Amino acid sequence: MLGNDNLDNSLNAYILILVIHFITVKVVKVADFGVARFLTQGGVMTAETGTYRWMAPEVINHQLYDQKADVFSFAIVLWELVTAKVPYENMTPLQAALGVRKGLRPDVPVNTHPKLVELMQKGWDADPDNRLPFSAIKMELEGLLQEIQDSGDTPNGN
């Protein structure tokens, strides 16, 4: 998704653009790098930058973080795409951040494709080491897309 030395820190559905060619989504582009930063040579960052509803616990807690913080945000974006809702919509952004620190995650609809559920749950795991790298996420999504195309099914199971 992002280069190895970039962190977006504000990844959310509002800044993504789908490039569509003949009804098939070919590319998703990040449209706003307003709070993006380069990684230090050590590969980790500190300080709280981003938007609370999509922010990883390690960022909220002012701990060291790396690309796995963007994986967390991506999992929340994936949930947004599945549900067409704003994460933690009945909370203020600060309440959402405090909830995430305590393990709160959005409820996944029961009819969601199991592979999407797994990607979301792995992506928003509290432990960054348990989150998949973007290269693995890309492979999983490509496999799911092929499965869906082969079956004629839709990702939410309908």
Explain what the structure shows.
With 158 residues, the protein is α+β, with helices and mostly antiparallel strands. It has one domain (6-38, 45-151): Transferase(Phosphotransferase) domain 1 (Transferase(Phosphotransferase), domain 1, Orthogonal Bundle). Helix content is 36%, strand content 11%. The chain contains 5 helices and 4 strands. It has helices at 57-60, 68-83, 93-101, 114-123, 134-151; strands at residues 6-7, 16-21, 24-30, 37-38. The strands form 2 sheets. A two-stranded antiparallel ribbon has the order 1-4. A hairpin with a 2-residue loop joins β2 (16-21) and β3 (24-30). α2 packs antiparallel against α4 (114-123). It is globular, with a radius of gyration of 15 Å. Residues 18-22 and 33-48 have low confidence and may be disordered.
In sequence order, what are the helices and strands, one letter per element?
A: EEEEHHHHH
User: In CATH terms, what is the architecture?
Assistant: Orthogonal Bundle
Widest sheet, order of strands: 1-4
Measured between the Cα atoms of the first and last residue, the distance is: 28 Å
Sheet having the most strands:
2 strands, antiparallel
The first-level CATH class is given as Mainly Alpha
Question: How many domains, as an integer?
Answer: 1
Uncertain stretches of 5 or more adjacent residues = 18-22, 33-48
In DSSP terms (H or I, runs of 4 or more residues), the helix count works out at 5
Shape type: globular
The fraction of residues assigned to DSSP E strands is 5-15%
Q: What's the total number of strands?
A: 4
Question: Overall mean pLDDT score?
Answer: 78
Would you identify the CATH H-level superfamily? Transferase(Phosphotransferase) domain 1
